[in-house]
Amino acid sequence: MKKVQIxxxxxxxxxxxxMATRLPYSDYEAILPEMDKAGYYSAECWGGATFDSCxxxxxEDPWERLRNIRKRMPNTKLQMLLRxxxxxxxxxxxxxxxxxxxxxxxxxxxxxLRIFDALNDFRNIATALxxxxxYATKNTIASGCISYTQSPVHTVEKYVExxxxxxxMGFDTICxxxxxGTMSPYEAENLIKGIKDAxxxxxxxxxxxxxxxxxxxxxxxxxxxxxxxxDCATSCFSGGTSQPATETMFYALGQYGIDTGLNEEAINxxxxxxxxxxxxxxDSGRINPKSMATDAQALVYKVPGGMLSNxxxxxxxxxxxxxxxxxxxxxxxVRKDLGYPPLVTPxxxxxGNQAVTNVLLGERxxxxxxxxxxxxxxxxxxxxxxVNADIQARVLKEAGMDKPIDCRDEDCKRTGEEFKNAxxxxxxxxxxxxxxxxxxxxxxxxxxxxxxxKADEEKITRYVIEEA
Length: 468
Prior knowledge:
Layout: E1 5-8, H1 13-19, H2 25-28, H3 32-35, E2 42-47, H4 50-56, H5 62-72, E3 78-82, H6 95-107, E4 112-115, H7 126-134, E5 141-147, H8 156-169, E6 173-177, H9 185-199, E7 204-207, H10 215-224, E8 229-232, H11 246-255, H12 264-284, H13 289-292, H14 298-301, H15 305-317, H16 324-337, H17 347-361, H18 370-376, H19 389-399, H20 407-411, H21 417-426, H22 433-441, H23 443-467
Parallel strand pairs: 1-2, 1-8, 2-3, 3-4, 4-5, 5-6, 6-7, 7-8
């Protein structure tokens, strides 16, 4: 019997796409043991924007969240999304930082590291791959990821060559990450058949979104074409900018005689559990109706779900939602200026924020974000196509540079200074390597979190003493 396995995304990408990753651990802790019985290929539960959101919005320690999930789901592979040399942030880190982060991720419970680079510059994922292999346990899987998009420079032939390179590098599986949900059934068929011919029986995974309404057709064609694993979300957190529904795909695949390995009773219990949670966030306005809708315009703008929900949240906070359509139309123009990068974190946020800035200020590039400046200076890697020469020249001139840098020249410097400086900056606030790593990735948010943790514990201690 043919088998297609399913990764459940509700703990990470589904809620990241629908509600900007604001789902606290306390909301889903009780269902984790039931999820552990479901038979998923993996549960995507960490990485992406979860780390930032835990510290910035939810007052949670992301490492503790991971350990708690691991404790309650001992039989399921836990999966994270890692942005290669960017880790979970928006800049490149030195190789020693990347290696230590991977080591701690595996130590705290991660089994599958899905590693990607926003530009598909695979030099930027080599260190994370090497570290994954170095610290691997018997359950560790290094999944090489391709950021899928369409543009004048992205072709089936190019993607097939990328997959050959990922196999040669030593990845265990390959994931096609269609973050904007723009892959059509026709493209899926040609792409997956071409890749399968090139890499043989190496497991191939498809990650897509329902943003454009294309996902169910595309996933079905992908299955016919030989895909091995698909990403889905429990149905109440599916659709819109999220993934196709787990239960729906289970039902449909069963009629084709395709085994998913899922426990039907368990996956239905999971969905029943999350229904009132989703409704709570719909009622509060945290889940915006735009995030739950189908928007075929994304076929033009190539906007991924997480980018769309963040853009909506930011414009809402600024009371500027009337600029939403104009900002959306500006995104393809900014993307072209940057050499057609795939719109995936951190590039999606960079392009989206620059588009919003251009619209709000009424003049294109009147103000350029520091991240976009860094991009033009070469700090993120090699763009898929030539960038706007005028903007790059302006940025380089302002920075006093003659030409862009080679990002890998900087990444590979193993100085150790970041750890030393972080430990000194935190003092007794840091109790573990994980605290130090959090500070390196998100210094302001981590310091605030650790200070609050210390204050809360001191308050409890005073209370105990007074009661005694």
